[in-house]
Design brief:
Layout: E1 2-4, E2 7-9, H1 14-42, H2 46-50, H3 62-67, H4 73-83, H5 97-108
Antiparallel strand pairs: 1-2
Length: 111
């Protein structure tokens, strides 16, 4: 361990460096999938993103998807989530089939 001032600097081992690299790659993959989900949702592929068999977007927050829908926005999106029994931290994988259907119908009913 090296000391500089008040804070010790830990020497990074090759095992630690490779684990860090894998962690960074995982975070980048999640970020890339989240961006793809939001883009597809905004372009109208709602059923594809919310599909029960779509494991690719399971970690995406539903509120982030609703934020990009024209005519819904942040406040109405959170109200919609609340009306189907979800909160702001609910992910696509937490949704039931009925909740998915209610959200899809609400979005399709927009002018």
């Amino acid at each position: 361990m090296l000391h500089t001032g008040h804070y010790p600097l830990l020497m990074e081992t090759s095992v630690g460096a490779s684990q860090r690299k894998r962690d960074i790659e995982l975070v980048c993959d999640h970020r890339r999938l989240r961006i793809l989900a939001v883009e597809q949702f905004a372009s109208g592929l709602i059923e594809k993103v919310l599909g029960e068999d779509n494991l690719m977007f399971g970690h995406v927050y539903v509120v982030k998807l609703l934020d990009v829908v024209p005519g819904i926005g942040k406040v109405a999106g959170r109200r919609l989530l609340s009306s189907v029994g979800l909160n702001g931290f609910s992910t696509v994988s937490h949704m039931t089939a009925q909740q998915r259907l209610c959200i899809i119908e609400a979005i399709r009913a927009l002018p």
